[in-house]
Specification:
By secondary structure, this protein is of the alpha/beta class. It folds into two domains: 11-30 and 294-386, Aspartate Aminotransferase, domain 1 (Alpha-Beta Complex); 43-291, Type I PLP-dependent aspartate aminotransferase-like (Major domain) (Aspartate Aminotransferase, domain 2), CATH 3.40.640. The chain is 39% helix and 14% strand. The chain is built from 13 helices and 13 strands. Strand 6, helix 8 and strand 7 form a beta-alpha-beta unit. Bound molecules: pyridoxal-5'-phosphate (PLP). Pyridoxal-5'-phosphate binds next to helix 4.
Amino acid sequence: MSETRPVSFSDDEARAWQREFPSLAATVHVANCSHGPQSLRVRGAVDAYLDSWLEKGMDWESWIAEIHGAKEAFARLIGAKPTEVALSTSASAAVSSVASALATGGERRRVLTTEAEFPTVGHVWLAHARYGLEVEFIPVRDGAIELNEYEARVDERTLIVSATHVYYQNGFKQDVKRIAGIAHRAGALALVDAYQSLGTCRVDVGELDVDILVSGNQKYLLGVPGVAFVYVKEELVERLEPALTGWFGRVNPFAFDPKTLDYARDARRLETGTPPVFAAAAARAGMELIEEADPGRIEARIDALSAHAIEAAARCGLEYSGPHDVRRKGATTAIRVPEPTRVEGLLKERNVVASARGDVIRIAPHFFTTTEDIDRALDELRSILGRPL
Ligand SMILES: Cc1ncc(COP(=O)(O)O)c(C=O)c1O
């Protein structure tokens, strides 16, 4: 990462960006940890797909070009080559493909993962115990995981360390570069689930030196459900022969030969069936918006908004449940509340879209969020909690 710190957005710049998201005229949207708001750009990309379908009936050439465009956009976002990126339909499916390629019954069979993973990641690894993998979870203590927890557990039996970049529940951000270093020193691989960080900060796979990185697009990448991406480091690609596969993962999908097992030479080998064209078109448009806003500047803005939210929550007498150092934090600021799902509904009635999870309401801004939006969300929360629920 460069030493010069990019300049954060001002509130005026954030307000100008809000014109790209029509719903923001009437609502405060701080649920980006769950789903981003609809942008004109993404709407346009989905409409263009629907138009091409309506007008041409079938237009595989341009639809497949759309898939390539989406992979290129993801690759640019993480500093990878497009040939190191495969398109998938969810983070779950992407991690499952990787797991199915790693469960080969080799000497190394331990998967070290954490209690901070989104449940699907733990679920996928556990499902591969029947193929010989052994799964260990590092506990979350006081909402965080210290690096020595990794150091104490990684050894020559570790096949892979599977760690989330940002904890979906309270926003705790892990130092994935150092986690990857710990894994590599013991000869293990490092996989990062970046679903809660991509779009909020700079992520460069070369700089982080991770082997595999997955993310879907509906959150801070401003896309829609139904599409995800997996990065696999070039040097690792040819070692992965997934059992969870399909014709788009083959050397030539259009050979139409059902009796040969072969894998594309690049990361496309992790793909399965017919790709989700309209979701990929939306994903590409969302990622291009992030690129235009500039992940470095977004990171600076998110840090500033985090500091603002933590301070404002304290001022409102709300119970903040997450790291106080903004460098150890993603975009989410988690506020402990009784009956979070009910509170989420009450906030929505007041035109504040926030997200309940566990025992918290997550206030998760983006580059288009103003400090006034944060204040408004917290004020409404305080007002709701001030009355009997
Ligand atoms: C960190 C993280 N990983 C994975 C997921 C789930 O991904 P998918 O539904 O695409 O499998 C989520 C949330 O939806 C998440 O927050």
